[in-house]
């Protein structure tokens, strides 16, 4: 660790400036668009490649769980209850005597599904509302922004608890599809304002550009301007946000299941496994730690991917 | 300034009404029978149901119910549970604990997060920078209850509810935001480090401590303050998981048990209070901008 005061002095400022010059010199040789520039930047980044690999692996796990294990995730053998990791079962057995490794692999699908669908939902609602608010401005903007504030003001966990408990009275057992839909919708409904604000800010900037004025001068209608001119230029920051929030939503699914209001058996998901394991943490920590590790690594991959993409698209941060 | 505050306060009203109305509808209007299971194994006697329906205005139109509820709320009457306990007493018992927990979390995340952010922002791409980046990534990707179980395993559950006892739960509650604060500070410091005013401050021979502490930090702290301010509301709402892990009897546990028992009055009361805290904090943050950066003017 170094003395922070040294860092602020003149010498450290110089190398930074030099690097900047170097960078611009290289780029002058070979002009590139922002997109391809970002791609070249990304390909050289190890974190980008690593997170991409992890995400690919998780997706393959979700689509073809049979490739990774031949053990039935719902097969239970009471003689193995809560046994720790062994060569027969790498991650040990859970409280029903089911193989934790197999359940983690089969749980990927539900967890990823909730994460992807709720992110798509939040980005779709937020994106549409945000671009409309930004484009029309004035009263539309005020009304839509206040409407978004209503949902932003609701504390996430409390809001989700109230929504999920209202639609499923305690003790009831809703079907598999119904509970997944409810969890997806409640995460989306409570998190869309963030996407809306990002989209609105990007639209406000893009709206002032000459090409938008030119398109309007040539007689293009609002729909054409929004779809053909604004959308392609505002979508990047929202996509970066959505990668990061996809990770966060997988974590949210785990939290809701942990509280016993999210997905529930017979659905297998990482959150459900954590919820089953939480009462036995002191005697059998492996039951909680393995699914939690899968949640963490997946979230980590999405956050790292989002970070790398954002840095690549933001020339100022280089 | 006065006009700006007034306008912001007026803007808060529709947001407050919207949020509380949605919660009220969810809690009172959607469940088919709010008295299911209230009287043990048998159905409730009609006299009891009629008395309760009259007490909670359940026979009125939804909007009339909501307005009546709000009217009583503004006179400080949070209502009574089905069993007759005062909701305001329940909240008064649980709220101080949660506020203390949230404050501890806020202090932890502000102090640790900003220190880490300043140290790494000044030296981008150094060893400390990469260390903090990896550490923040870890914190962001760990679900709160996992951090909670690990720290509970190391330190045990708190014995009381004093500030000192709540340090470990506070660290858990604030861990995620701490990572965000560190990253925000780092980006902000790194951006402003090359600014002209910093160069001027160095050039006129100010000690580096003053350059960093006064010139650089004050100009870099605005996004961090925004985050911290709105986070206080989120911390109180999110305390439910931490309170569960550490067995602290705060607002989160109160809401959770009362939703399970379908005590609508308690749920709407607590959520209304939390929404109010969130909205007021975002107003205070907006007003703080002018203190931190005199260039910002309120028209």
Describe this structure in words.
The complex is a heterodimer of chains A (318) and B (299). With 318 residues, chain A is an all-alpha fold. Chain A has 12 helices and no strands. Chain A has helices at residues 4-7, 10-29, 34-43, 46-63, 100-136, 138-152, 156-167, 176-207, 210-217, 222-258, 270-277, 286-313. In chain A, α5 (100-136) runs antiparallel to α6. The longest helix of chain A is centred in the middle third of the chain and has 37 residues, at 100-136. Chain A is globular and about 75 Å long. In chain B, α8 (196-203) packs antiparallel against α9 (208-220). The termini of chain B are close together. The model of chain B has no long low-confidence stretch (mean pLDDT 81). Chains A and B meet through α1, α2, α6, α7 and α10 of A and α1, α4, α5, α6 and α7 of B.
Question: Order of helices and strands of chain B, N to C?
Answer: HHHHHHHHHHHH
Radius of gyration of chain B: 24 Å
Distance between the termini of chain B: 7 Å
Overall SS class of chain B:
mainly alpha
Task: Give the tally of β-strands of chain A.
Answer: 0
pLDDT averaged residue by residue of chain A: 78
Oligomer category:
heterodimer
Structural class of chain A: mainly alpha
In whole angstroms, how far apart are the ends of chain A? 23 Å
Main β-sheet description of chain A: none
Q: Percent of residues of chain A in beta strands?
A: under 5%
How many helix segments of chain A?
12
**Largest interface, C-beta closer than 8 angstroms, per-chain residues:** A-B, 56 and 66 residues
Got a strand count of chain B? 0
Estimate the strand proportion of chain B.
under 5%
Radius of gyration of chain A: 24 Å
The low-pLDDT segments of chain A are: 1-27
- Approximate helicity band of chain A: over 70%
Topology pattern of chain A, helix = H, strand = E: HHHHHHHHHHHH
The overall pLDDT of chain B, averaged over residues, is 81
**Main sheet of chain B?**
none
């Amino acid at each position: 660790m170094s003395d922070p005061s040294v860092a602020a002095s003149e010498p450290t400022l110089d190398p930074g400036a030099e690097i900047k010059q170097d960078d611009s010199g290289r780029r002058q040789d070979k002009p590139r668009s922002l997109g391809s520039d970002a791609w070249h930047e990304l390909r050289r980044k190890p974190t980008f490649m690593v997170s991409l690999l992890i995400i690919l692996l998780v997706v393959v796990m979700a689509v073809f769980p049979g490739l990774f294990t031949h053990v039935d995730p719902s097969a239970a053998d009471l003689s193995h209850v809560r046994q720790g990791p062994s060569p027969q079962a790498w991650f040990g057995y859970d409280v029903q005597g089911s193989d934790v490794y197999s359940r983690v692999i089969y749980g990927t699908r539900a967890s990823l599904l909730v994460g992807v669908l709720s992110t798509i939902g939040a980005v779709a609602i937020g994106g549409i509302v945000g671009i409309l608010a930004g484009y029309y401005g004035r009263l539309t903007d005020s009304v839509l922004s206040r409407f978004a504030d209503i949902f932003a003001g609701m504390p996430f966990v409390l809001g989700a608890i109230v929504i999920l408990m209202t639609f499923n009275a305690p003790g009831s057992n809703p079907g598999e599809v119904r509970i997944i839909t409810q969890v997806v919708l409640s995460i989306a409904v409570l998190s869309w304002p963030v996407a809306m604000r990002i989209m609105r800010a990007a639209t406000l900037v893009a709206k002032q550009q000459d090409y938008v004025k030119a398109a309007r001068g040539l007689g293009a209608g609002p729909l054409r301007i929004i779809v053909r001119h604004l959308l392609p230029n505002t979508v990047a920051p929202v996509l970066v946000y959505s990668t990061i929030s996809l990770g966060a939503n997988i974590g949210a699914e785990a939290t809701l299941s942990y509280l016993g209001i999210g997905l529930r058996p017979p659905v297998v998901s990482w959150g459900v496994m954590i919820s089953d394991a939480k009462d036995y943490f002191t005697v059998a920590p492996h039951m909680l730690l393995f699914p939690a590790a899968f949640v963490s690594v997946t979230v980590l991959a999405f956050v790292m991917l989002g970070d790398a993409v954002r840095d690549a698209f933001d020339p100022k941060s280089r | 300034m006065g006009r700006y505050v007034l306008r912001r306060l007026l803007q808060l009203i529709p947001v407050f009404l919207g949020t509380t109305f949605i919660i009220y509808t969810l809690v009172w209007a959607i469940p088919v029978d709010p008295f299911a299971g209230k009287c043990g194994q048998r159905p409730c006697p009609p006299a009891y149901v009629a008395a309760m329906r009259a007490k909670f205005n359940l026979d009125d139109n939804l909007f009339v119910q909501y307005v009546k509820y709000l009217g009583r709320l503004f006179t400080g009457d949070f209502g009574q549970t089905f069993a007759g306990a005062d909701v305001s007493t329940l909240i008064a018992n649980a709220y101080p604990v949660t506020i203390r927990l949230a404050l501890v979390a806020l202090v932890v995340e502000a102090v640790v997060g900003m220190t880490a952010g300043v140290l790494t922002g000044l030296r981008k791409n150094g060893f400390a920078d990469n260390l903090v980046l990896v550490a923040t990534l870890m914190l962001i990707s760990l679900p709160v209850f996992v951090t909670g179980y690990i720290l509970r395993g190391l330190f045990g559950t708190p014995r009381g509810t004093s500030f000192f006892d709540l340090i470990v739960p506070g660290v858990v509650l604030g861990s995620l935001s701490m990572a965000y604060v560190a990253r925000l500070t780092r980006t902000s410091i790194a951006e402003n480090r090359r600014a002209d005013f910093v160069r001027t401050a160095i050039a006129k021979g100010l000690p580096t401590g003053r350059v960093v502490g006064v010139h650089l930090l004050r100009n870099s702290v605005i996004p961090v303050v925004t985050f911290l301010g709105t986070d206080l509301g989120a911390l109180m709402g999110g305390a439910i998981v931490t309170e569960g892990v550490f067995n602290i009897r705060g607002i989160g546990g109160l809401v959770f048990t009362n939703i399970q028992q379908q005590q609508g009055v308690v749920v709407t009361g607590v959520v209304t209070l939390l929404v109010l805290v969130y909205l007021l904090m975002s107003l205070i943050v907006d007003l703080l901008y002018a203190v931190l950066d005199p260039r910002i003017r309120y028209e």
